[in-house]
Amino acid sequence: MTPPLLDEEDPLSSRSLVVPQSDDDDDVDDDEDLFSHAAHVLATEAAALASITALYRTSSTAKKNLKSAVETILHSQQSRGKLIVSGVGKSAYIAQKLVATCKSMGVATSFMHACEAAHGDLGDIRDNDTILFISHSGKTPELLNLLPHIPTSTPILAMSSQTSRSACPLIQARKPDLGILLPAPIPVSEEASFGVSAPTTSTTVALAVSDMLALTVAERLHRGRGGCKREMFRRNHPGGAIGMSQREVKVVKKAEVKVEMLELPSPSISAEDDR
Questions:
Q1: Domain limits at 104?
Q2: Domain total for the chain?
Q3: CATH number at residue 160
Q4: Burial readout 214-227 (b: 16 or more C-beta within 10 A, e: otherwise)
Q5: Is the full-model pTM beyond 0.70?
Q6: What is the pLDDT of residues 190-208, one digit of tens each?
């Protein structure tokens, strides 16, 4: 028997022609969006790092500024001064990471939060110190407010998005040898890249420039003292997995020497068993 033809005007027959979309298809689309966005973030930050690398490799101004910054910090270190690093918000965390890295390699450094500085921490500034401000905008109000209270003889370094010292409010009023710019620009704004201006690409670049500065200063500092930054780091970092790996290296070098290790008693053993 021949089946009846479907009536195109019949709503029931029309519905029977629609193929429902499965939930699995929705999940796949959501996953693709997730991975695409995640890869975009990584690619954007990688591009920013490539851009800042090119800047310090090719720009004579950036090279000159880096050399001046390193020499200024070295002069402070050799004159029993220190590097004071300051910032606000996410930049303050970058500043603290820079301080920790410098300390581990024997570079005298301290962190000064800009807000606390105005409430007494300015007393940390001594003769022969150098100050480094980290601020992507280069015009953070909390940092600008400190300028009148910092000795005019104290060198100020500014790590900011500007590529010209005359465009950076933090140092534009100081003499060239006392106001040095460490450019840390990003090629595309975070708002344009991600739809939100949260510090992301800018802090990635600032962290990279901070590492560049810390390692370069340490290299020059200890080379001038007849040592090396690796030896200083090893001495200053005996703890954690890094410290353990360094101790293992020493054991390998002394592999020919027999060392007997005494097994310590378990903490659960009572003192009554001690004889």
A1: 33-236
A2: 1
A3: 3.40.50.10490
A4: bebbbebbbeeeee
A5: yes
A6: 999 999 999 999 999 999 9
